[in-house]
Inverse folding.
């Protein structure tokens, strides 16, 4: 079920990253030549690599928001910053995991 409240909350925290994601995914597909003429889909490892690129966008957005909050609050930590720091660490871990999956997809399938 779609929960627009959650969508709005995430957008407020992370911003609209879809253009960033689209650009990075397009660059990756082009650079890696992932979809030659005879291929109709992206493989699991490629998806994981592109999910890592999505996490890059999220990480960039979180860092930018933390910088703004630092400056606005004279470097005094508040609840939003604590939550963002947790989200940053989670996103960094997710990115690392996606990159591992991208490079070790056959092993990943056996987990």
């Amino acid at each position: 079920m779609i929960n627009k409240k959650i969508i709005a909350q995430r957008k407020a925290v992370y911003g609209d990253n879809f253009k960033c994601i689209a650009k990075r995914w397009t660059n990756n597909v082009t650079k890696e030549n992932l979809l030659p003429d005879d291929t109709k889909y992206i493989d699991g490892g490629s998806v994981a690599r592109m999910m890592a690129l999505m996490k890059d966008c999220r990480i960039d957005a979180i860092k930018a928001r933390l910088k703004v909050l630092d400056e606005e609050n004279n470097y005094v930590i508040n609840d939003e910053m604590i939550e963002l720091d947790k989200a940053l660490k989670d996103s960094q871990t997710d990115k690392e995991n996606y990159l591992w999956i991208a490079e070790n997809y056959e092993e990943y399938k056996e987990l």
Observations:
- The CA atoms of residues 3 and 79 lie 24 Å apart.
- Helices lie at 4-14, 18-32, 44-72, 79-103, 105-110.
- The longest helix spans residues 44-72.
- The chain has a mean pLDDT of 85.
